Amino acid sequence: MTDQSIQDVRARQYAVSMWRLSESLEGAEALFDQALSNALAAIVAHDYPDDLYRSDGKVKSAAGLLRVLEEHGIPGTDGTIMLPHEGPDQLWVTTPLDDEPVPNFTEVRVGALREAIDKTQAVRHARGKPSGPTLTEEHLAALAALDSHEALYVFSDEERDRDELRASREGAEEYARARAYVELLDADEWARRRAIDYNEIYGGWSPDGDRVEVQPCPACGVTALVAHVFDMYVDDVGVGTCMACSYRRTQDAADLEGLSELLWRQSESDP
Ligand SMILES: [Zn+2]
Q: How far, in Å, CA of 4 to CA of 8, rounded?
């Protein structure tokens, strides 16, 4: 992929995640972590490309990227960092529409973001149970404040967002529908369905010579999602219907998953 398309993918992932996070922060540590990592990588790649990678060639962690911004940015109030949009002498500008000067910089709320990283990492590595809600509105606001940066400004690119947000919402609705069905069936019925070898029945090759994969279903956990088509990013996340619980993963939903997978691989292997 070109650098520009990687930047585009990072910005999209951030935009879609922001929307999901604004719906609920409950159990969203991994999503928050990913959105923050992508946002910081996009900003550092844009402003300080030489500082994006660790010495072993991998993209720095969120904590490492935050340190880069701390080193280069202008100290603001309450431990925040300002990243100027134009120059350090133009941090505030007055436009004909505003009476008061408006910020002409991206505010990086280092303290809140660092705290959020600690909390999401604690959950990821299961280092003891966090007490009470893990992430707060303050953390979300700090993540959202990064949006004014040029590398992420696509968040307000409504046309494109609408498509992705619609897909994201439909995916969530379909997931909820399947989960409700999963809850309806009793343990005996689930034991019976889990015992079926769906791969034996459905896997292999279609009469047209297309590969047919039977994948684990995100709604019921049974390896019963029969896919003939795959996502556009990593060609791995199946589009299809689960034969155990009826959950249907659409192309859009598979593409969103594939996008996350691509970014994850990117962060593991970027030269
Ligand atoms: Zn299922």
A: 6
Sign of the C-alpha dihedral computed for residues 145, 150, 155 and 158 taken in this order: positive
248 CA from centroid of ligand 1 (Å) = 8
**Which residues have CB less than 5 Å away from ligand 1 (the ion)?**
217, 219-220, 242, 244-245, 247
Q: Model-level pTM greater than 0.85? A: no
Q: How far is the CA of 182 from the centre of ligand 1 (A)?
A: 8
Q: Which phi and psi (to 5°) does residue 241 adopt?
A: -120, 140
**CA–CA separation, 18 and 144 (whole Å):** 7
b/e 136-164 (16+ beta carbons within 10 angstroms → b): eeebbebbbbbbbbebbebbeeeeebeeb
- What's the CA-to-centroid distance between 196 and ligand 1, angstroms? 13
Q: For residue 210, how far is its CA from the centre of ligand 1 (angstroms)?
A: 22
Q: 193 CA to middle of ligand 1, Å?
A: 10
Note the pLDDT tens digit of each residue in 187-216.
999 999 999 999 999 998 887 788 899 999
Q: How far is 191 from 187, CA to CA, in rounded Å?
A: 6
For residue range 119-174, what is the model confidence (pLDDT) as tens digits? 888 766 655 555 556 899 999 999 999 988 988 875 555 555 666 677 777 888 88
Residue 239 near residue 231 (C-beta atoms within 8 A)? yes
Which DSSP state fits 244? T
Distance CA 230, CA 254 (A): 7
Ligand 1 center to 12 CA (angstroms): 28
173 CA → ligand 1 middle, Å: 15
Instruction: Name the DSSP class of 151.
Output: G
